Amino acid sequence: MNEIKLSTLNKAIFEQIDLPDNAVIADLGCRDAGFLLGFQQAFPNKIKSAVGVDINDKGFKNIKYKKPIKLKVMNCAARLDFSDNTFDFVFTKDMFECVTDKAFLVKEIHRILKPGGVVICVNCDWDSVAYNGEDKELIAKAVHAYAVTKQPWMDDLDSWIGRRMYGFFNKSNLFESSVTVHNVVETEYKEGYFGYDFSKHIAWLFEENTGAFSKKEYDEFIDNLKSAQREGNYIFSKPYYIYKGIKK
Ligand SMILES: C[S@@+](CC[C@H](N)C(=O)[O-])C[C@H]1O[C@@H](n2cnc3c(N)ncnc32)[C@H](O)[C@@H]1O
To answer: Which candidate among 37, 186, 208, 223 keeps its CA 20 to 30 Å from the CA of 174?
Structure first.
């Protein structure tokens, strides 16, 4: 792997990847193809072709991608529009929880991988995200409400998807399975950091009138995080389960 600047999470993910020469790879639920661009940088001259798919092309606009990367609109909840035994490596991050029939998607990934091909499936366990702050109940409520409230673009939602991923693949008996967990830990509440950005996403719960978290609760939640930062005891922790399967 080439030495490129990676976040601790991406480093943990990239360390699990060992591409063969002339690798044919796919990213399912790629959004803006950020990971494919990263793989291209990290493994120069190794990738023969790379395809990113997403249910919509919103993320495809205004991004710089070129050969060997191609992007396609595809619904990963249905039969994947790829031939059997196509890919050396299939990557998918934070997409599985959106698909209802996970067993079918596991079988589809197996079908499109070459024998001995590798899948890496990365999922945050949303209900295990943690912030430190004074009001435990309020902070736990904010995290839990976000974890269990379905957003309009999701077909499905599983707030425990991280810890469940290993089982979805392993019980299929189609893969040699292993799993690691990488915890993103931050001690600063600052724009551009995961914890800060995530606290801003939580606002959608009152902005969209979900009833799961009120504006008053949200404002108090943010005050808790700001106070923790001022007092020097702010912590944000977000666990990502990194499942690796080798096609049997
Ligand atoms: C949370 S984003 C993750 C994006 C990217 N994998 C990453 O980790 O940066 C989830 C992505 O999955 C896509 N998605 C959701 N359901 C999908 C489906 N059934 N088929 C394909 N893509 C889907 C969404 O459009 C979105 O781009």
So the answer is: 37
Q: Could you read off the pLDDT of 142-166 as tens digits, one per residue?
A: 999 999 998 887 778 899 999 999 9
Domains identified in the chain and CATH numbers: 8-247 (3.40.50.150)
DSSP SS3 for 146: helix
pLDDT in tens, 182-198: 999 999 999 999 999 99
Q: Which of 43, 53, 65 is nearest to 91 (CA)?
A: 53
Which residue has its alpha carbon closest to ligand 1 atom 8? 93
DSSP for 11-42, please give it: HHHHTT--PPTTEEEEEET-TTTHHHHHHHHH
Residues forming a β-bridge with 175: 247
Name the nearest CA neighbour of 174 among 106, 82, 98.
106
Q: What residue owns the CA closest to ligand 1's atom 1? A: 94
Contacts of 190 (CB under 8 A, 6+ apart): 196
- pTM (whole model) above 0.85: yes
At residue 7 the predicted structure's pLDDT band, cuts being 50, 70 and 90, is confident
Q: Strand pairing of 113-124 and 87-93?
A: parallel
Using most ligand atoms within 8 A of CB, pick from 31, 36, 72, 102 the residue to mutate for ligand 1: 31
- Residue 52 sits at φ, ψ, to 5 deg, of -110, 135
Supply 215's token pair: 């504006």
95 C-beta neighbours (distance < 10 Å), count: 23
Residue 223 contacts by C-beta under 8 Å, 6 or more apart in sequence? none
Contact call for residues 172 and 116 (beta carbons, < 8 A):
no
